[in-house]
Amino acid sequence: MSELDINETLRDLESGRLPDWISEHLKVYRESGGREGHMFDARFAGGGAAVPTLLLTTRGRRSGELHTMPLIYDAVDRAYVIIGSKGGAPTQPAWYHNLCAEPRVELQVGHRDLRRHGAHRRGRRTRAPVATHGDGVSTLRRLPGQDRA
Q1: What pairing do the DSSP bridges indicate for beta strands 104-109 and 112-120?
Q2: SS3 52
Q3: DSSP per residue, 58-118
Q4: Cβ of 39: how many Cβ atoms within 10 Å?
Q5: In 3-state terms, what secondary structure has residue 130?
Q6: What are phi and psi of 88, to 5 degrees?
Q7: Closest Cα to residue 75, out of 106, 54, 96, 98?
Q8: Which of 3, 47, 48 lies closest to 21, judged by CA?
Q9: DSSP characters over 7-25
Q10: pLDDT tens readout for residues 77-125
Q11: What does the alpha-carbon distance between residue 45 and residue 41 come to, in Å, rounded to a whole number?
């Protein structure tokens, strides 16, 4: 993969089109059942050689259609933490708004398919969508210094 053009990626996302590199990652992840794509080589984008990714499927808040995005995550306690950074753009990614409007989501983490329900919670100290991978409830919280959505 060549070096990432972040401006092109942001233009594609703003226009509602998935950039080629995201489409390819999503295709590999799905077609392999999560055997490939779960650990993503993000060096071309300034990331690590093997970062864990999950597939988040949300329902479009306006279209009602299902949308899936591969997202980098971390497992904390019994939860998956994902960050809605949109490559550092000043706006939230579409999946974030979809998740706030409709908290029922589907996740694929490696070969595991999960259905979860989230709740949007506001707090002073945290903000990160979290989908529990036990029997708990997903939460959405604030990170310091972020705008109030």
Answers
A1: antiparallel
A2: strand
A3: EE-TTT--EEEEEEEEEEETTEEEE---GGG-SS--HHHHHHHH--EEEEEETTEEEEEEE
A4: 13
A5: strand
A6: 90, 5
A7: 54
A8: 3
A9: HHHHHHHHTT---HHHHHH
A10: 777 888 777 777 778 888 988 988 988 899 999 999 988 765 444 443 3
A11: 9
The better pLDDT of the pair 63, 47 is held by 63
| pTM, full prediction | 0.75
**Dist CA 30 CA 66 (whole Å):** 15
Rounded-to-10 torsion of CA 108, 78, 138, 99: -40
Calpha distance 134→50 (Å, rounded): 25
The tally of CA atoms less than 13 A away on the side-chain side of residue 73 is 26
Rounded Cα–Cα distance for residues 43 and 21 (Å): 13
Contact 10, 87 (CB under 8 A): yes
Closest CA to 36 of 13, 70, 67: 70
| Lowest mean pLDDT across 2-11, 15-24, 139-148 | 139-148
As a whole number of angstroms, the longest Cα–Cα distance in the chain is 41
